[in-house]
Request: fold
Amino acid sequence: MQRTPVSGSAVARSLPVCRPPSTPARSWEPRYPKGAAEIDLMMAQRLEQQQILDQEHPPGLHFIIDEGALRRMVGSPKVMVQQWEHLLEATERTHITVQVMPFSEGAHAELADSSTLMETEFHGTIQYLETLATGNIATNLPATALARARFDSLATNALSEKTVRTLL
Reply:
């Protein structure tokens, strides 16, 4: 299944992202083993999206990654080390915040789904909720306000960036 990025995502001012036990898509490095054409297409799209981060005024990004994403082996040990190094480098960029939701916090609201909030100048807050099978966009205030409150709650309970750097 091909997923199309939200129109206007390049003009987002900030992108709070909460990912379930998987590595955040916008932080992927092109080092995962290649397979089906679909995976290659997804990787190409995600790498193209990463170019937004190299603009003169990139959007702010705030990732909350489930600890399972850091611990679960995806690819070889070498690939995993490269992924951790990439995340560590991301924490050094002033517009990127990386937090980790530790196992010790137990189950949380975003365990099964992936949620991205886009704060845009012209459209306000947009939520993209991604599941294994589909993605949905919400722009209504009650849905986006609830998503923001959930994200803020998770950010409060997630490990600080300093602790994440030590963990990585």
Q: What stands out?
A: The helical segments are 37-50, 67-71, 77-91, 141-157, 161-167. The radius of gyration is 15 Å.
